[in-house]
Amino acid sequence: xTKHHKIFAGDRLRRLREQRGTTQAELAGGLGISAGYLxxxxxxxxxxxxxxxxxxxxxxxxxxxxxxxxxxxxLASELRESAxxxxxxxxxxxxxxxxxxxxxxxxxxxxxxxxxxxxALEEEHRSLQTRVAQNDVGAASRFPYxxxxxxxxxxxxxxxxxxxxxxxxxxxxxFHPENRSEDFIKYxxxxxxxxxxxxxxxxGKGMIWRLDNNAxxxxxxxxxxxxxxxxxxAHVIGLLEQRDSIERxxxxxxxxxxxxxxxxxxxxxxxxAGALVMPYETFLATARDVRYDIExxxxxxxxxxxxxxxxxxxxxxxxxxxxxxxxxxxDIAGNVLxxxxxxxxxxxxxxxxCPLWNVHQSFSHPGRILVQLAATPDGTRxxxxxxxxxxxxxxxxxxxRAVAVGLGCEIAYASETVYSKGLDLDxxxxxxxxxPGCRACERKDCRHRALPPIGHxxxxxxxxxxxxxxxxxxxxxxxxxxx
Length: 483
Hints:
Blueprint: H1 10-19, H2 24-31, H3 35-42, H4 50-60, H5 70-83, H6 94-103, H7 105-133, H8 144-154, H9 160-172, H10 180-192, E1 195-199, E2 209-212, E3 217-221, H11 226-241, H12 243-253, H13 258-277, H14 280-289, H15 294-301, H16 305-312, E4 326-331, E5 336-341, H17 358-361, E6 370-375, E7 381-388, E8 403-410, H18 411-414, E9 432-433, E10 458-459, E11 471-472
Parallel strand pairs: 1-3, 6-9
Antiparallel strand pairs: 2-3, 4-5, 4-8, 6-7, 7-8, 10-11
């Protein structure tokens, strides 16, 4: 039997209706349903049926996938990328990938699982060849980062049990930003008998903290800023306080190996730390009060810019959700260090992010917040905020790590943020055309391409030449060839 996912997109439907200046009664009349039925759909008490989806598309002039589940969109995007590997011959189209997910989502998931296994074996084979050539036998990569990242993304970067546990602990112990450092240190000492001290000697190259179980001491790098030290103490509290909960969630994740499980353990302890430093309801209320001003939230909660951005991307508690944000962290070479999305935004699995994205430009303006209006190929528009978050390396002889973070939300939520001030959110001409990455991007006229898009034939033999040395999906046959 064909499996269909129910579409619950009440908030998206309500916002679209309000943008069009239409009442519930008017839209319900156009759809041929009662206003009460529409109200239940907007409240996610009823799903949007396929029949109503098509009516909405015609009535409001939108693409049918506008209300598609975010997980389905991400799955279709990844399926299209993976199934277009030259290994399989010809590429598949976006419509074919979407149809496959719609008709057989479990089969699509299993195909991707199989394909990831193939890539892991290929990587292991190459690594083993290199190691044998160097006479150095060791374990090869199994892509644990990708596996854990996919798992976190499947949870929309929100872990309710840990979030609520951190919130309860913060309330019970009356932790406040102004004396949180001392409170965390005291709690760790009194509850678990672990002292905290700054390591004057080198912890080891690249090390920032070390828990010495024999000495019952948590050593922290003395070069780290106070907000980092607070977070590390909270991380250790999470490992100790929520050990059973963390292990239970890792077991449920069914990760493929212990290396992935270890990374997941770190990710969950980090999640708890962020929730303890920035308790959900208090942080969300403050974020709304300051219109999601990241710098003001930094000061209120004594945190870093990156910590605030990441926390904002996790505010997806079903009973009181915040703005759905995507979050990205990259280095100066464009390598993706972290990424998650509570939005429909699609990250490419292969290759770097789109060069038109302002997160890249932030390296040319260190410390400055850049704001951008951008649109993806499917027509969804975003407000994107980016800034470098590099810290001092602590020594002239150390090389500081140059990284930047990006935070974004769909344009429908932009007016709720301080970053929309002075922007004409309806001006399409001021919107930059970005994409998930060159291989997965559908744009055929982008002069910033580094790689051709998958699934389209190339024409490199014409008498014309643009900035990109090929044309994509040429519809009209060309006969004027250079002989």
